[in-house]
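debug: dumping io for the single-chain case to check the tokenizer round-trip. Nothing else runs in this session.
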Amino acid sequence: MTNRSTLGNHRRRPAALLLAAALAAPLLSGCGGTGTAATGELRAAAPASRPAVDPARVAATAQATDAFGLDLLHALTAQPDAAGRNTVVSPSGLATVLAMLLPGARGATADELAKALHTDLAPEQYALAVGALNRPVPTADGLTLRQSDQVWTQQGFPVEPGYLAALAAAFDAGVRTTDFEKDPDGSRKAVNTAVEKATEGRIKDLFAPNTINGNTRLVLTDALYLKAKWASGFKPGQTADRPFHKLDGTAPNVSTMGQTGDLKYADGSGGIAGEPWQAVELPYSGGDLAMDLIVPAQGGFAAFRKGLDQPQLDRILGALAEQPVDLQLPRFHFDTSNELTPTLRSLGVHSVFDAADLTGIAKQPPLAVSTVVQKATVQVDEEGTVAAAGSGVGIGVAAAPAPRQAAQLHIDRPFLFLIRDTATGRPLFLGQVTDPQAG
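debug: decoded output
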């Protein structure tokens, strides 16, 4: 049930991520009483040997998660009141929890989820590919990365054995039992406590009051936590207050770090909405995790962000090449909390909320998703990065180049960031920073 994992062979996940899904059955007859929210032991376990997954499917799933993450970012920043705010999402986290849901979906419900996730794999194959991306990586000095997948189900609820077997094979996920019906709030707190513990206290109260209720029958959670030091840290003595040009035209002084050294760097113009851009990659110590920063030219941020898609992102990342870089980067630390039901609807996911076919989970009663939430946090300073994310789905009844002059990238304007596994290509966190001082 607990799976401590990282990414496999294409891009490794930075920071911390957490994800949860809750499944409920509408209008079930309640039993009354207050309950104790006591949790039972696991009643499913991972197979002795997990199925092998075609590496091509794993690579394609990493690219699909990139595309899904950009869809999320575009949808979340489409509204005028959100376009200018700091935002962070965890594509990997939400994709994982939806991958846990997908093997139980049928018909249009499965088709819509697969389309939003940019995959044409069968549900079980997609789950296995996501699970392969989540394989453990060795702990290294300066790097802590943990992932935990759990299934919580109502005591006595008849979950289909094939569905549980699919989760065990892909995610090492067993089953915990609790009593949502008699003690929904105690059960909610138990789920939230498990998520909070798995993310070192970074994600609290993933499920808000009343989002898990007496009709809840199943909760899926994925918790990811990353604390990573830079391979080459910023020296505190080089941090100084420097202007940051915000979208509203103001330029307050913000605490800005600085370093000069060999880093992967690229720049270009005309490729995305005709806007020039610069990009740099900051590796973390102990493995393949890295943060990529993409900085459109002053005044071009909104058009660039709107036009960025997965092939263009791949071209930017593929153009990165090591050279001397004079880098300045603001410190930042902020949290994001979103109810993602409207966002997923905007991506074409409707039937899972309205007329769901989740009979792969349970034949009766009819199940439907009631809420999808995600919380995420990211902190970047001289030492490195700490990030975490939590997502929840509630289902209710119903060759060495010649030396060159250092490229100059003084990040004094809004920028995008991506935390990824450079070995597997899987995006862990994706976001924008429009105001480094905003919490």
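debug: round-trip ok. The longest strand covers residues 253-272.
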